[in-house]
Automatic annotation (TrEMBL):
InterPro entries the UniProt entry points to: IL1/FGF
Identification of the protein by name: Uncharacterized protein
Region (Disordered): 171-190
Domain of life: Eukaryota
C-alpha cells in the first residue's frame, strides 16, 4: 500500500471512530462520506436505490451478481456472488425497500438478504410479515468511487456484506472497509 493510501485509510478509520461519538453517529458520517464522494467522483452511486426498483447487486471481487440458490447439502436458500447480469437471471433480482431513516432492505420474492449471527444468509419471509431486523442495511459510499458502495448491517454494526473472488460469502463478514470483497455496484433491472 502506498504512503498516501495508508494515510487515507488511517484518516477514514479515525473519522469513523469519531463519528460514533458525535450526535448522529454513523448516519452523520455516512452522509458526510456520501457528500465528499459525490464531489470527488461526480456521480451518486445510490442512483438506483429507490423504493420499488428491482436491482442487481454486483460484487466487485467476483464481478458477478448476488443471487439466491438452494444449498446442495442443507436444501436451504443461500446466496452467492456468481449470478448472471440482466433480466434473464431472476434469482439475482432484488427489490429495494427503503426505511424512513435512510436504511434499506433487499428481497427476492420476500427472501431477504441479511447478516445473521455474523454470517451472510437468506431469511425467508412472506408479504404479511414484517421485514427481518437482520436484513436492514446501511449503504455507505466507497470514498472516491463513482459506482461502489458498502452494505453494513444495522443489526450488527461493523459487519459488511462480502464475497470472495469465487463468489462465496466471506468467512468473516466483519471485514475492513477498504477490502474489495465488500464493495458492490448496483444495476437497475426495472
Amino acid at each position: 500500500m502506498s504512503f498516501l493510501g495508508n494515510i487515507s485509510k488511517k484518516a477514514v478509520e479515525k473519522a469513523y471512530n469519531l463519528a460514533s461519538k458525535v450526535e448522529g453517529g454513523r448516519d452523520y458520517f455516512t452522509s458526510a462520506t456520501h457528500t465528499v464522494s459525490s464531489l470527488v467522483a461526480g456521480k451518486n452511486p445510490r442512483v438506483y436505490l429507490k423504493p420499488g426498483n428491482v436491482i442487481q447487486i454486483i460484487s466487485r471481487s467476483s464481478g458477478r451478481t448476488i443471487q439466491i440458490v438452494v444449498s446442495q447439502t442443507t436444501n436451504q436458500l443461500i446466496c452467492d456472488a456468481i449470478g448472471g447480469t440482466g433480466a434473464y437471471y431472476p434469482n439475482a433480482h432484488w427489490l429495494v425497500v427503503c426505511t424512513k431513516n435512510g436504511h434499506y432492505y433487499f428481497h427476492n420474492n420476500y427472501n431477504y438478504l441479511a447478516i445473521k449471527d455474523g454470517e451472510i444468509v437468506i431469511i425467508p419471509s412472506s408479504i404479511n410479515e414484517k421485514s427481518p431486523v437482520e436484513a436492514e442495511f446501511l449503504v455507505q459510499d466507497v470514498l472516491g468511487s463513482a459506482q461502489a458502495i458498502y452494505f453494513e448491517s444495522v443489526h450488527m454494526p461493523g459487519y459488511f456484506l462480502g464475497f470472495n473472488e469465487d463468489g462465496n460469502p466471506s468467512n468473516a463478514p466483519k471485514i475492513q472497509r477498504k477490502d474489495r470483497s465488500s464493495q458492490f455496484e448496483t444495476h437497475i433491472v426495472s
